[in-house]
Amino acid sequence: MESETLTKNRLYALLDEFKASREGCVTLYLKPASFPHFIGQIWLADRYRPCLDEIAESAKASVVIRAVQKYGTGTAIFWQPDGRKYIVLPPFPISENMVSVGEPCIDPLCHLLQKQYAIGVVLVHWGSYAIGIFRNEQLMESKVGTGYIHKEHKKGGSSQKRFARRTEEQKKDFLRRVGNRVDERLRNHTLDYIFFGGNRLILKPLLQESNSLRSEESKICGRLLNVTGYADGQALVRASRQIDTSLAFIC
């Protein structure tokens, strides 16, 4: 089983290819909470049963299950008996389960991709942060900053313990400052989703420092944006390009 990360344009092109083929196809849309057990509840005519059995078997693959849990957006499955077979993890959640046979049903996924979203992006590494508000894929406002955090002291003894305590205090001060900046930027916006990027271990303690993140925790997407180096304005731009990407498994 191969996988491919798809930009929005690449996914549109793939859907157009499906639509043009007009071959018999089983199409499934599954909400995040419905994968994979809902597949076993579907009844189809005998001619489509082999497709459904193949889908159920592919959905059990550990690499698929891990990715579905990571994305947290559900799945769109396109399965042609003698043609293309794809499990697509879209960038935003599928809202309802659907089953279709015959011509590939691409409209629900197209509508999901075409919807205009208001998105908050919070990128944090120890010592740097970047916060952005995107509407219709345009950066509306942002805030970037840094904070000094002492590097680990490796000489041992009481000196090492003293430096460790200082570092912990610096991290706490940094998180409090970032939490305040997040609140300043997010509190005045009604957001559809929030994406976090950077050091995964920072998100949980940051939630304790930001009222906005805590109150909107259900909108924080499970997919971590890949941010290397400093969290700054350029990192915001790069991270925004990841938001619309989908993951497809070619079965």
The major sheet is characterized as: 6 strands, antiparallel
Percent of residues in beta strands: 15-25%
Shape: elongated
* Low confidence ranges: none
Rg, nearest Å: 22 Å
Instruction: Give me the CATH architecture of the largest domain, please.
Output: 2-Layer Sandwich
Mean pLDDT over the full residue set: 91
List the helices and strands and how they pair.
Blueprint: E1 2-6, H1 8-21, E2 25-30, H2 49-59, H3 62-71, E3 75-79, E4 85-89, E5 98-102, H4 107-114, E6 118-125, E7 128-135, E8 138-146, H5 157-186, E9 193-198, H6 200-209, H7 211-215, H8 233-243, E10 246-250
Supply database-style keywords.
251 residues, alpha+beta, Translation, Eukaryotic Peptide Chain Release Factor Subunit 1, Chain A, Nucleotidyltransferase, domain 5, 2 domains, six-stranded antiparallel β-sheet, four-stranded mixed β-sheet
